[in-house]
Amino acid sequence: MNARRDFIKKTTIGTAALSVGGFFSGFGTRAYAGIIGANDRIRVAMMGVNSRGLALANNFSSQSNCEVVYICDVDSRAADKCAGAVEGKQGSRPKIEADIRKLLEKKDFDALVVAAPDHWHAPAAIMASQAGKHVYLEKPASHNPREGELLIATQKKYGNVIQMGNQRRSWPNVAQAIQELHNGIIGKAYLAKTWYTNNRPSIGVGKTAAVPGWLNYDLWQGPAPRRTFKDNLIHYNWHWFWHWGTGEALNNGTHMVDLARWGLQVDYPTKVTSAGGRYRYQDDWEAPDTQIINLEFSDKSMITWEGRSCNGTPVEGSTVGVIFYGENGSLQIEGGNAYKVYDLKGKLMKEVKNDVTIDARNLTDPSQALDAIHIQNFFEGIKNGQKLASDIGSGHVSTLLVQLGNIAQRSGGLLETDPSNGHILNNKEAQKLWGREYEKGWEPKV
User: What's 38's DSSP letter?
Assistant: First the structure.
């Protein structure tokens, strides 16, 4: 326990040229050295604050070594609501700027938190990096594999800190579970089963409609080629359209597949299969609501992902989780900061429950308190070069695994992949989905 307490203490200290469209240039690695503001408080701008971004804004503004100074959102209602919430946390009201391009021209903040829709993740992170900002990037790291590779190249070129928001990498008991797995608590682990279940309703059939006055739809689309506004798209349902979203596999699967990859100590697969479809409702939803992805690795191990968006029946007693099967038993991590170990007969041999609380300014929600560890790790990476729990290289690999599952789903169900880099082999149709087309003027450029 003492070692784990030391780990918690260390992670809570301080309670602490690629471009898009050619908007920014000439910001090198050395320029990051003096970027932190007075009293070592990191000044942050939040991009995309309707849902997850609002929660992140509340969390960042609750950290005593942080100040949220800008809110960037194309929805004026969401921006105003978030600014008010942040003011209630930190005592000062952040400024609002709808256009990310104008925001990134400003010099008075240090880091951008990207929680906009998936099609914005990589382009915004690339733009921010070129503008001299560090980046906290919500999962998934990218909309498509090519963007993930561009992100890695971006970080290498500009030398900034980019942390992906798969926050379970920083949760102490989850990290302890993975360490126990690596130490052989169940022998060699060879299969990791991951899942997520929910009871999402139909999104119906959208109708062409006038864009609401509170929404800048052109900026919302940003790098994505333009499409007509429909009344069943914004705010959440974009997840289920390939043009903007990445389906349940990346929406929720990224978290658990990331833990599976971490536990099995694997990177790129040799074979990927996917089966499923839109089974529950007949509507505009394009991605699968029912999907099983299998990822096979050259060390004779395997990861599976089961996603059920429209039937919330739990798996292994939980609606979300990962279970590792090994030579001598199994280890299960559910959605929280806890884990269980079983022998080969299913007898519970060990259980570690969540026993961590983190103090922060005006922060009381337990899950946000855990996420604050990941935020503080990001801050320490900026200030002191501390190793990131989820650097963009690792984040890209975990994102890529579920992206490959979706590509398999959309191109015949089976992919052979290069185990050195995850690239698709011998499948021209699938290879077309490695990248995407962009709205003119928004293309990522080297």
Answer: G
